[in-house]
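Run log, item B.
One chain of 693 residues. Sequence copied directly from the ordering sheet:
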Amino acid sequence: MHHHSRGLYSVTERTGMLFGADYNPEQWPEGSWPEDIRLMQRAGINMVTLGVFSWARLQPSEDRWDFGWLDRILALLHEGGISVCLATPTASPPPWLGHRHPDTLPTDAAGTRQWYGSRNQFSPSSAVYRQAAEQVTSALAVRYGRHPAVVMWHVGNELGQVSHDDETAGSFRNWLLRRYGSLEGLNTAWGTTFWSQAYSQWEEILPPRTAPYLHNPTHVLDFKRFSSGLLLELYTAERDIIRQHSPEVPVTTNLMGFFRGADYFGFADETDLIGNDWYTDPARPGTWEMGALTHDLCRGLARGEPWLLMESAPSAVNWRPHNSAKEPGAMMVDSLSAVARGADGVCFFQFRQSSFGAERFHSAVVPLAGEDTRVFHEASALGARLQELRLLTGEATPSRIAVLFDWDSWWAAESPDGPSDRLGVLDQLQAYYRPLLRRGLSVEVVHPGAPLDRFDLVLVPSLFLLREHHADALADWVHLGGTAVVGPFTGVADDRGHLREGRFPSVLAALVGVTGEEWRPLAVPVALDIVDPDHTGGARPGAPSPAPFEASVWSEDLRLHSPTASTIATFATGSLAGKPAAVRNSHGAGAAWYVGCDAPAALLSHIVGTAVAEAGLASPVVGELPDDVELATRAGYHFLLNHGPETRVVHLTEHSVDLLSGEPHGTRLALRPYDALVLKSGADHTKNESGTP
C-alpha cells in the first residue's frame, strides 16, 4: 500500500516547505534549550529530528526509564511552534545491552566480534536485540503516539548493519530454505558442482565468512539479498508498533541514496514517505551531478511524488580524511537542487555543532562560534527562501525519462571474479545521465520491473543481471513506440548470477539487433569512429573534442543480428577495427541503441541526444548547459543553479520571469557564481531569440 503522497503532504500542508535539522538536546545543559528554540525560529526551522541517538538516555539500564527530559523538550518545541520528527533510538544500543548480552553484538566476516563504544553495534538477526529495540519503540509510541508536536516518525538511522555470526547463519539457512525449498534446489542455484562446494546438510551453510580465495558468487549475492531483507524486517517491525499507537502520523527511515547494503525498492513499498541523506563533497568538482542522480533516485522511489532530504551538511563533514568546507552560497544551491527534483523539505545534520564526540568537527546550522557566522546567516536565508517556494509543496515531479537500476544487478556485477573492476555500475549510470543533465532533463530511477507506460525514453546503463520477464517487458514497450538506450555488459546473467549461454545480450538480442561473443577489457585505449552519415557527433574532423574519441577500458566483439539494425560507431583501431561499437535498431514502432564499450562523453552525448529527439522530448536549453550549471524543472518552474565559482552564460529556449524578484529574463542569462534562480518559463513565447530584450 502506498502512503507516499499522503505521508509527506499531511505535514507540509501545515508547515509549508520543511526546513529542519537533527537536534540532540541531551548533549547540552537544559538551561540552553530556550536559546536553541530562539535560534531555530530565527533560522526559519520548522521541524527537528529528536532522539536518534538517545537510547542510553531514555533507558539508562535494563530496568530503568527516563522520559522526563524528552517530555520537557517536546513541550518547549511545541510551544515554540516547531514540529518534531521523533526517532526510535535503535541504531545505537546502550553499552548495557552489549555488556549483558554480548550475543547482540555483530561479528565481521573473519568472525571477530565488533564491540560497543561507537554506534551501530548490533546484529540484525539477534532476537535479544530485536526484543530490546521493540520494547523501546513501544515505550516511545505509547507515550508520544498522539503528542501534538510529533508530525513524523523516524525508525532507526541509516539502516545498514551486516553480521556473520552463528545466529545470523541460522536465519540465513531459514531464508534459503524458503527461497529454494530443498538442498538440491540450493546446490543447483549456487552451482556447487564447481570447486567441490556441494552441501549435504543445511547446517554446513554459513554466511560468506573469510575464505582462502574467491567466494561462490551466488552465495555472496544471496547473502546480500538476505541481509537487505533483514534490515527491512527491522524497519517494518518498529513501524508496525508505531502505527498501533500513532495511526495518523507518517513513518519513514533515512535512506542513503545509492547505498550498496540495502535494496531501497523494497523499502519504498513500506515507508509512508521517501526520506534520504545526501552529502555533497565540496572538494570534488561535479559532486552535484551525483547529487542530482541521487535526488532522481528518490523521485523514482517516491514514484514521482514529493520526498524529503532528511540529512545534508551546512558546510564541512567530519568523516572524510580531508574535509573541505562549502563555498559561500553552495548551501543554498545544494539545497535547491533537491527541491527542484521533488524534495518538499531540506534538513541538516545537525542543528548545533557538538563540542565532544566523534562528530565534533561536523558543521551545523549553529557553529561553535554561534549565530553571527556565515553558516548561520546562510541557513537563515535558506529558511526564508524555502517558504517563498511553499507553493511547490505537494507538487509531484514525474519525469518522462526512466533509468533502470537494480540492487541485485549491482551486487552481482561488481563481483571480485568479474572481467574488470573498471566498468563500475555507478560510473556507467552517471555517464549515461550526464547528457540529460547537460540538456536540463531529469529522470526517475526505477526498478526493471516497474511499469514503463508513463515514460518516453528508458536508459539501461548497466544491468548485468536481468530477469527474462523484465527484458521482455522492455522489448514490448519499445515495440509499441518507446525509445531505449542500453549500455555494455547488460543482460549477461540470470537471477542466480549464472551467465547465459549463447551470444550476449541473449535476452535483449532481438531488441538491440546486435549480438556479441567476447568481452574484451582493454589493455590500451582504442579509437572510435562515428559512422552515422547524418550526424558526426564529437568526431567532426578538425572540431575541438573535449577528450580523445576512444574507448578506454571496455570493448565487446559484436556483429549485427537484425536487418533493421545499423552501426552508429565502429572501433577504429585495435583487433576489433571496423566492427560495431554502437548500434541502433528499429524495433516495431520504437528504437533501441546498444553500446558495446565504455563510450566517451561525445559519443554518449550524440546517442542520448538522438534518442531524446526520437522520443519527442524537448529540452528547455539551447545546445548544452555549461559546466557547473544545473537546470531542473518542477511544476513549470525552472531552477537554474550555478554550482561553481565562475559566472556562466546559459541560453534557454524561452523568456522567463524570476519567481522571487519578478524580474524578467530573456533567453540569454548570465549566472553569477553560486547563483540560484527560480524562473517561471514562457512569460513571453518568443522562441530562439538571441540576447536579452
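Observations after the first pass:
- Residues 104 and 126 are 5 Å apart (CA to CA).
- The longest strand covers residues 514-521.
Flagged for discussion on Thursday.
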